[in-house]
Structures are given as structure tokens and as C-alpha cells.
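Query structure, 279 C-alpha cells:
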């Protein structure tokens, strides 16, 4: 796995139906879901074909795991904006209930692969090589720290993702800052129907520095203007001194200079339903 200052989840990414809440035993907390993100670079002119291939093959295993409650959401997205030196343009996300659910997937996947004939496996590999640039595949695994789901039930058309390299041991501090300073404005936008689900995720398995991602599900790109305007209003209401203090705290938790954003267009929502857990 390569070191990256990005997560994928999506998702990606973060399309969870169930809230992250305490179990019946008030002294125990349910494990927070994880999202496994896979990034790939398509062969020239093959991006849509690759997305369709991933969706068709993913449905064979993920939809059944969704029915069993192991997978909360899965899908395929394409990057809208690009950066110099990009090495991916297709992203697949799968959100598991917990690591035990990820293990159920691994067992099901290996069983499905073992059942294939050598001829079928060779044909699949040949098709894959015709769609994917060799050596481009890599993965990220993130843990969702905060998820605020949407009750609207409208599948997202886009995701807005903001990435920051996280300083060691600062996940809890960053979560508290985010809940206090970002979440209220996002909840207002969600109540107005401007955005869908949103949340905060951080690297669970990584090589090198961990990363954090703020993600937002959007019904359209027009939501971008509304999000920016809402935060301008919030900043003005907070005041200059309070904003400086807030940014000082954020800078103590993340590398602000390493920040970058991605817009992801959703090309497939798994399970035959909406992107937020099939609501």
C-alpha cells in the first residue's frame, strides 16, 4: 500500500444507514464502521467501462453481504477534479459494519474465487488488464469517527471530500473541534435539504502519516455554493478573534498546508438502493 494524503470514501464513503451509537449496554460502544477504498487508473478511454466492470462484479458479492448486514454500503465513483501527478480516476468503496464483517467478506470472496475454473479466471484477468493500468491499484482503510445520516433518502450524486494529514495522537482533539465548529453548520444545511449525509473519518490502516477526511454527500454541484456561503455566515457570526483561535487549534491537530479537496461523481450505488445505505 502506498502512502497517500487521501482516503477514498468516499466514501467514500461514509454512506451509512445506522448511526454510531451506544449498544444496549451503556458501558459498551458498538464498533464504528470502516470503509475500504480501492483506487485505480483506467486505461485511456476505458473509465466508464472499468466503472461498469467493478459495479457488475461487486454486486455478485456485496449485495448479498448487505442483505446479511455485513456491508452497510458500497459503490463506484469517478474523480471530477484532478491534481498534477494523479494516479487514479476510479474509486470503489465498501463500508463494513466492523472488522468481523470485513472478515466475512474475505471468506466469501476467497470462496467465490476458488469456485472458478482456470479458464474463467484467465478470461477475467485478461479483461481486467484491458481496463486497468498495470500497477495503479492501491487501497485505503478508514474508520468513521462521526456519521450524521440523512433522513431524505435521496441517493447522492456527488461527494465533497476534504483531506488533511493528521498529526500523531490528535484524532480525538480533531473530532471534538469538528463536532463543535463544523457539525452545527452542516446540520443546518442538511435540515434545509441542501446536503445529505456527512461525517468525519480517519485512517485505520496506513503507511506513514495518518490522514483525516471530512466528507459530504451532495445531490448536485449547486450544493457547493450553499456550503461555502453557510460557512462564511458562520465565520462572520463567530467573530475574528474566535476564528483565529479555532484555526490555531485545528493547526495543532492537522497539517493545514497538506489540505486538498476532491469532488467525486457517483456512478453506481450498491444494493440497488440509495447511496446512504439504501434509505
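Result returned for the query:
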Amino acid at each position: 500500500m502506498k502512502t497517500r494524503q487521501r482516503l477514498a470514501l468516499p466514501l467514500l464513503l461514509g454512506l451509512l444507514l445506522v448511526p454510531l451509537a451506544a449498544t444496549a449496554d451503556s458501558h459498551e460502544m458498538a464498533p464504528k464502521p470502516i470503509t475500504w477504498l480501492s483506487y485505480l487508473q483506467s486505461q485511456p478511454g476505458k473509465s466508464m467501462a472499468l466503472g461498469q466492470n467493478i459495479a457488475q462484479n461487486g454486486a455478485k458479492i456485496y449485495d448479498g453481504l448487505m442483505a446479511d448486514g455485513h456491508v452497510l454500503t458500497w459503490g463506484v465513483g469517478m474523480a471530477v477534479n484532478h491534481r498534477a501527478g494523479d494516479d487514479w480516476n476510479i474509486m470503489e468503496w465498501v463500508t463494513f459494519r466492523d472488522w468481523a464483517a470485513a472478515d466475512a467478506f474475505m471468506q466469501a470472496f476467497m470462496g467465490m474465487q476458488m469456485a472458478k475454473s482456470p479458464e474463467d479466471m484467465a478470461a477475467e484477468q485478461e479483461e481486467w488488464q484491458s481496463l486497468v493500468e498495470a500497477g495503479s491499484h492501491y487501497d485505503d482503510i478508514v474508520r468513521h469517527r462521526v456519521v450524521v445520516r440523512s433522513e431524505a433518502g435521496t441517493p447522492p450524486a456527488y461527494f465533497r471530500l476534504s483531506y488533511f494529514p493528521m498529526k500523531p495522537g490528535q484524532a480525538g482533539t480533531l473530532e471534538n473541534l469538528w463536532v463543535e465548529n463544523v457539525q452545527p453548520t452542516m446540520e443546518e444545511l442538511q435540515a434545509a435539504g441542501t446536503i445529505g449525509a456527512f461525517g468525519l473519518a480517519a485512517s485505520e490502516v496506513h503507511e506513514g502519516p495518518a490522514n483525516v477526511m471530512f466528507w459530504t454527500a451532495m445531490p448536485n454541484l449547486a450544493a457547493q455554493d450553499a456550503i461555502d456561503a453557510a460557512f462564511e455566515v458562520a465565520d462572520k457570526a463567530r467573530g475574528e478573534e474566535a476564528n483565529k483561535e479555532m484555526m490555531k487549534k485545528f493547526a495543532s491537530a492537522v497539517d493545514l498546508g497538506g489540505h486538498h479537496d476532491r469532488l467525486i461523481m457517483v456512478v453506481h450505488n450498491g444494493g440497488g438502493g440509495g447511496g446512504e445505505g439504501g434509505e
